[in-house]
Amino acid sequence: MNILHIDSSPFTENSASRELSAAIVTAWQQTKPAAKIVYQDYGTNPPPHLSAEAMTSLRSHQYRYLSDNALAEIAAVNQAIEQLEICDVLVIGSPMYNHSISSHLKTWLDLICQAGKTFRYSSTGPIGLLKNRPVFIASSRGGIYSYGEGLAHDFQEPYLVSMLGTLGLKDIHIIRAEGINMSHPGRDVVMANAMQQIREIFNLPAMTQPA
Ligand SMILES: Cc1cc2nc3c(=O)[nH]c(=O)nc-3n(C[C@H](O)[C@H](O)[C@H](O)COP(=O)(O)O)c2cc1C
């Protein structure tokens, strides 16, 4: 079993999405001890943006006479798609940035969304070419967006569900820590609730409260 684990918060200390994505991977490992993990830390090592040269080449399938930069970008596309194709489970740590995902994660999406490779066009719209498999999104955000006034401003979770769904990944589970930066109920409670959500999904024993 292969797990592709992606983080996209540039913060390595006190990152809620990193903490949760790591807990999800650990929970999978407890269920499948032989699982192999491929880890991509796009938060600190973002994928390359695609140049016009690379995008033109990918669309036309002409790979001759390319600059070294374009070749490196195309290699990054191929590697990202290959990692996705061979994984059985995808785990993504995603902080909300300006109502959407971090640009670090967006550049990865721009790599993997390739017509003819991960989706194809049809008369009724795009059709995903990836085999469906479970996707776990560790979503963190400073405020509340799952209900109330924030709902209309959530371009993070619905966007990820939409784009991954376009590629054929429709079995999406969201573990959400929202209100991280609000005083009530506070980060500790929000994180404890999200961790509890993970334990329930994986049938792990609940944390016992200290006496
Ligand atoms: C550049 C930036 C933009 C942010 N934009 C939002 C936002 O639009 N809405 C929100 O609720 N929180 C926003 N936040 C707060 C983060 O979503 C929150 O701190 C989250 O926990 C970050 O994930 P991390 O802890 O894994 O880094 C923003 C934080 C940063 C640094």
From TrEMBL:
Among InterPro entries, the record links this protein to:
Flavodoxin_fold, Flavoprotein-like_sf, FMN-dep_NADH:Q_OxRdtase_AzoR1, NADH:quinone_OxRdtase_FMN_depd
Q: What GO molecular function terms would the record report? A: electron transfer activity; FMN binding; oxidoreductase activity, acting on NAD(P)H as acceptor; oxidoreductase activity, acting on NAD(P)H, quinone or similar compound as acceptor
Q: Does the keyword Cell membrane apply?
A: no
Name any one Pfam family assigned in the record: Flavodoxin_2
Family annotation (Gene3D superfamilies)? 3.40.50.360
Q: What note does UniProt attach to the cofactor annotation?
A: Binds 1 FMN per subunit.
EC number per UniProt:
1.6.5.-, 1.7.1.17
Q: Which cofactor does it need?
A: FMN
Task: Give me the residues that bind FMN, please.
Answer: 9, 15-17, 140-143
Name the job this protein performs. Also exhibits azoreductase activity. Catalyzes the reductive cleavage of the azo bond in aromatic azo compounds to the corresponding amines.
Q: Whom does it interact with, and what assembly results?
A: Homodimer.
- Identify its protein family: Belongs to the azoreductase type 1 family.
What is the protein name for this chain? Answer: FMN dependent NADH:quinone oxidoreductase
**Which species expresses this protein natively?**
Limnobaculum xujianqingii
